[in-house]
């Protein structure tokens, strides 16, 4: 019950790319001053483990993540693993939009403002993405800077789900500048499809409105259809 977590950690099989230092406390209640995954500094990690769940072959940790990380993120919730594999419950992750741009190549020069919040009510992993997924991704205080003007989407919300191993997202957004709805999917073979539409609002910057002539013709409701597909 009182064995130091740092002593137990030496018996855990190493995971390439993961390093954990400054471990204190016990298996049941402890923290590590720094965790690194490949080149990313994940900051401090804290945990509490339920001993009763462990008796049923269920490792369940109440974790906190991100303190002191230069990635400027925060995570909190339940992470676990049992005989069916890894899972998460009531887990949330906050990350600034500016940091997100470091991990995703953008086809045009854009700057993103605000922050993203990932909320997972229930998630169970199965290769390559998921077996079960009930969550949402919220873009708070969203802003998009372009060479032709700044777009204010207000708040965008994506409902996340999993269907036969396929990652699904239904996205809705509404502001005085633009309104849009999207459906996105990512198949196990890394093929993606993005279908949706956007409708310019009265306050859309003039420089951006002038470029709509290159997008195509809107439908009877003033909506411009958008469809992309490809492979990651």
Features:
mainly beta; 13 strands
Q: Mind explaining what this structure looks like?
A:
- The protein has 232 residues and is mainly beta.
- Helix content is 7%, strand content 59%.
- The chain contains four helices and 13 strands.
- The protein has helices spanning 5-9, 51-54, 97-100, 206-209, and strands spanning 18-25, 29-37, 40-49, 59-67, 73-82, 85-96, 111-124, 132-146, 149-163, 166-174, 178-186, 191-200, 224-231.
- It has a 13-stranded antiparallel beta sheet with strand order 1-2-3-4-5-6-7-8-9-10-11-12-13.
Q: Helicity range of the residues? A: under 10%
Strand order of the largest sheet: 1-2-3-4-5-6-7-8-9-10-11-12-13
- Please provide the ordered H/E string of secondary-structure elements: HEEEHEEEHEEEEEEHE
Total DSSP E strands: 13
Largest sheet: 13 strands, antiparallel
Task: Return Rg in Å.
Answer: 21 Å
Strand percentage lies at over 45%
What's the shape? elongated
Compute the number of helices. 4
- Low-confidence regions: none
User: Helices and strands: which structural class?
Assistant: mainly beta
Gap between N and C termini, in Å?
46 Å
Mean pLDDT: 90
């Amino acid at each position: 019950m009182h064995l130091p977590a740092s002593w137990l950690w030496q018996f855990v099989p190493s995971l390439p790319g993961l390093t954990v230092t400054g471990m204190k406390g016990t298996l049941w209640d402890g923290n590590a001053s720094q965790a690194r995954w490949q080149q990313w500094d994940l900051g401090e990690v804290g945990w509490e483990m339920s001993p009763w769940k462990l008796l049923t072959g269920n490792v369940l940790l109440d974790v906190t993540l991100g303190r002191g990380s230069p990635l400027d993120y925060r995570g909190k919730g339940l992470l676990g693993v049992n005989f069916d594999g890894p899972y998460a419950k009531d887990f949330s992750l906050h990350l600034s939009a500016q940091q997100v741009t470091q991990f995703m190549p953008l086809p045009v020069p854009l700057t993103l403002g605000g922050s993203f919040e990932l909320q997972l009510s229930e998630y169970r992993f199965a290769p390559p993405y998921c077996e079960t997924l009930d969550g949402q991704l919220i873009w708070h205080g969203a802003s998009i800077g372009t060479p032709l003007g700044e777009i204010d989407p207000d708040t965008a919300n994506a409902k996340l789900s999993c269907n036969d191993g396929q990652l699904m997202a239904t996205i809705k957004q509404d502001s005085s500048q633009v309104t849009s709805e999207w459906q996105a999917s990512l198949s196990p073979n890394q093929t993606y499809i993005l279908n949706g539409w956007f409708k310019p609002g009265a306050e859309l910057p003039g420089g951006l409105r002038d470029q709509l002539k290159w997008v195509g013709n809107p439908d009877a409701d003033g909506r411009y259809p958008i469809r992309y597909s490809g492979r990651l």
